[in-house]
Amino acid sequence: MLARWLIRLRAFLRGRRVDSEFDEELGYHLEQQIRLNRELGMSREDARCAALRELGNPLQLRDEARETWRWRRLDELGHDIRYAVRALRDHPGFSAVAILSLGFGIGATTTLFSVIDALDFRPPPFHQPERLVFLAELWPETEPDCPRCPGRTWAATANEWRTRTSSFEAFGIQNDSYLCLEDAGVGDCPDVGYASPGFFGVLGVRPALGREFLPEDALPGAAAVVVLSHDTWKGRFHGDPTVIGRRFEYAEDSTFSTRQSSTIVGVLPEGFRFRRDNPFWMPLTDDSGRRDTTVVARLKPGIAPAAADAELSAVHRGLVAARPDAYKGPDAAVRPLREALQWRRGEGRGTLFAIATIVLLIAVLNVAGMFTARAAARHRELTVRRALGASGARLVRQLLVEGGTLGLAGGLLGVTMATWGVGFASLSFGMERNGPPAQLDHRVLAFATGLSIIAGLLAALLPAVGVGRTDLYSALREPAASGRKERAGWTPRVLLVGQIAAGLILLSAAGLLGSEYLKLRYLDVGYDPVNVYEARLNWPYREEPELMRPEAERARAMIERIPGVVSASLRYISGSRPAIIRAEGLFPGGEEELSAPVVNRVDADYFETLGIRIVAGRSFSEDDDRSAPLVAIVNRAAASAYLPGRSALGQRLFLGDSASAGEWVTVVGVVEDVERGEYVRRHLPRLYRPLAQSRLYHPYITVDFKVAESHPEVLGMVQSALREALGSPIRPVTSHEGELADKFLSQRINAVALNLFAAFALLLAGVGIYGNVAYAVTRRTREIGIRVALGAERGNVLALLARSGIAIAFAGVTLGCLGSLALTRIMQSFVSTTSVTDPWVLGGAAFLMASAVLVATYLPARRATAVDPTVALRDQ
Amino acid sequence: MAKRIDLLQGTLDLIVLEMLRSGPANGWQLTQSILVVSRGAFKVNYGSIYPALRRLEAQGWVKGRWGTTENNRRARFYELTASGRKQLAGQREAWDDFSKAIGLILEAH
């Protein structure tokens, strides 16, 4: 009924006015009744008394009448919220701990949810993303574990798909590369993305300035054009609106030998990212032929992805059947766009999310425990309210609102913490520049809000269950602090046990990660990276790389002469590995199982510069040149892989591309395994050959040098010396230590985060126990007084009080240990060098937690026994 | 004095609507006229009349408005609306059926 709603709306908007109107109406009635009474002969006083008596309770009347014109629930909710906020303000200690706890838990969970949302749930920020798909060739050979995992596709293949399929209305082809720029003599090579004409249009992205690529730009011989990313435009070009049409110069590679000039034709909108945050974009030319690309397409309206998939598969298989050698993979598939945008990062996000949920759970348990203790203390207040007419349900609702309000306050704090957390998480998961960015958008905020309310409600729910059924009379009659046991006695204890157990699980997880990180950090990486730097040099001798050899040696010698440089050496990595490696004397049948080693070609000073320990034999010397017998040095892993069970020195190995094309080398030394690159977890066999005995196939070489002290001056001198030697800008030298630290960045952040969580859990558990025991002790003050007055020893009373605390601690720690052991499999994905059931870690964590709990038990108990018994007896 | 009869639940609405049929009135006037017309049988309490009036207003059967009485006091006057009239007719009919049925039962035994 419209009238009904209008009345309520009016009352809602002008609440107080409507109430006073009603009072006025009653007031008139009262007046008239008094007048009538007086006319009937009563005195003034009597008339008034009689009239008032008849009126009854005006407030109650008003309340009843109110039912008709207000949304009662809304009213009550408003009242409850105001009451809850006031209660929070009145108990600052309680509120602070509760809000901090919940805030921490919610912050952690929200941060990780933002990561998961970005990678798994959020639709890509393009126009109608559900109509965009990723077309991929399937290469079973490169991914033997995943025969239907998508791979990259040659541009030529993509073009053939474009002409032969009818399910798609637009195609976009893209790949990534780099270009090199020179700034004041220092070379830097930022990323560049190549995109086919209309690529941005396929995604529905319109440039903020200028235009995107047209078909003319992709024709061979067309004038070079470039499109900038928004950040590049703002940064490098200072947001200059006249940037369109300007020239942009760059070099194709780090030799800086071929310079190009292009025109800036467009600027992309802010926040655009495709797979990678490319600062520059250039058109993918038609002659890209066999370049690996990512292919995306927009489905025609009405076409389902499954149908498109079937068509593409059929078309591709037809192409392969006609010309089997011209294609990489035998089949092709249509996949969701999301798979094109992700890099294989973000591993372990599920586990971290689970851990964050545990943290939140601990916080909820803690707050629930605090609520329980407080509910017992408010017993009186609540029973009085019931006596005044509040229903049990109303009281429960009010407690829930208190919980919800607390939860929201915690959520506010949590979201604030998450704004920092997301930054760290992006670093840790490598999402800073690659893949979709993790951010606190409205979806994540909605999640945080919902989670806050649920957490708060849960925390309030447990104690609230007991409140609804309080026995009015007996509660009013008994003094608040009697010696009797509480009715809801076991709930707080169970909560505490749960908290301790969860906290212990967290602690042990933190301990595992922490020890893992420490091991990695101070890992015996096999060499001494301190003060060792590397410079990657690229000589302009693509056609004749051999020309590089004497120049590289000259550069090396020049660097060694610089004061402050201890030693310098050359390192050359050949792109291909030998296909066959065989040890002399080993059965021919054993070849296929041996994995080909990485081969580094180094000069005589290499092992000394890097500080690689020589375990047996010798290093290379100047004598190991082209005229000398072919030699090699193996690392430990190679020695045990290729020459097991015997001394490697003097053994001969065959390295070749096939059984006939190769060479025999003699092993003259064994060195420690050196962990670099991605292969920290496995000891890879590695072979070293003298640079002098190697053929050079490409003009890239690395100079490793060690300095006495990492002085920027020395590094500057090395840099200019190298630039002089090369005659072109070079990329800045990088430090080995820095690279190692970066590699472990993810582990480091995870370890720090987890340790933070665990410390927090420890604190909460401690505070929880302390509060619980303190409260229990307060209730038994009278009993303590009696006991001491009757002659009990202080120590015995202490033991008596502490007993429940110890019991809780024991139960919690046991449960926690069992839980940790049960979750070993999950933890295994996180740690590699530490065994998940490492007794030191688990034992240490248990010890720490137990100690904290015992201390928290002891302190209040001790304080209680120090009380003067007369005071205790008098206390009500 | 006539016997004071307890008002059956739900009949207050019918009574108020009927009283308002003859014209607008405020709460005080209503209680007085009900008392008089029922010859002292129904003494409606404050506690019943005002919530009932508000209830009827919420249903849209009466409309409340502020006005002035003879002695220039401010009071809230209620009058029947069109839908209120319809409701009254319906309730009267229902009441007739009800009392007829009761009558039948009582007579039969």
General description of the model:
The complex is a heterodimer of chains A (876) and B (109). Chain A has 876 residues and is α+β, with helices and mostly antiparallel strands. Helices cover 52% and strands 15% of the residues of chain A. In chain A, a hairpin with a 7-residue loop joins strand 9 (247-251) and strand 10. Chain B has helices at residues 11-21, 27-37, 46-59, 82-108, and strands at residues 25-26, 62-68, 74-80. In chain B, a hairpin with a 5-residue loop joins strand 2 (62-68) and strand 3. In chain B, 28% of the residues are buried. The A-B interface holds A 1-4, 7-8, 21-22, 24-26, 28-33, 54-56, 60-61, 64-65, 67-69 and B 26-28, 31, 45-47, 50-51, 54-55, 57-60, 66, 69, 73-76.
Q: Please name the fourth-level CATH homologous superfamily of chain B.
A: Winged helix-like DNA-binding domain superfamily/Winged helix DNA-binding domain
The helix count of chain A comes to 28
Main interface: chain pair and counts: A-B, 27 and 21 residues
Q: Helices and strands of chain B: which structural class?
A: alpha+beta
Q: Give me the count of strands of chain B.
A: 3
The general outline of chain A is globular
State the helical fraction of chain A. Answer: 40-55%
Give the helices and strands of chain B as they follow along the chain.
HEHHEEH
Largest sheet of chain A: 11 strands, mixed
According to CATH, the fold-level topology of chain B is Arc Repressor Mutant, subunit A
* Integer tally of domains of chain B: 1
**How much of the polypeptide of chain A forms β-strand, as a percent range?**
15-25%
**Tally of helical segments of chain B:** 4
Q: Tell me the structural class of chain A.
A: alpha+beta
| Distance between the ends of chain A | 57 Å
Helix coverage percent of residues of chain B?
Answer: 55-70%
In spatial order, strands of the major sheet of chain B run: 1-3-2
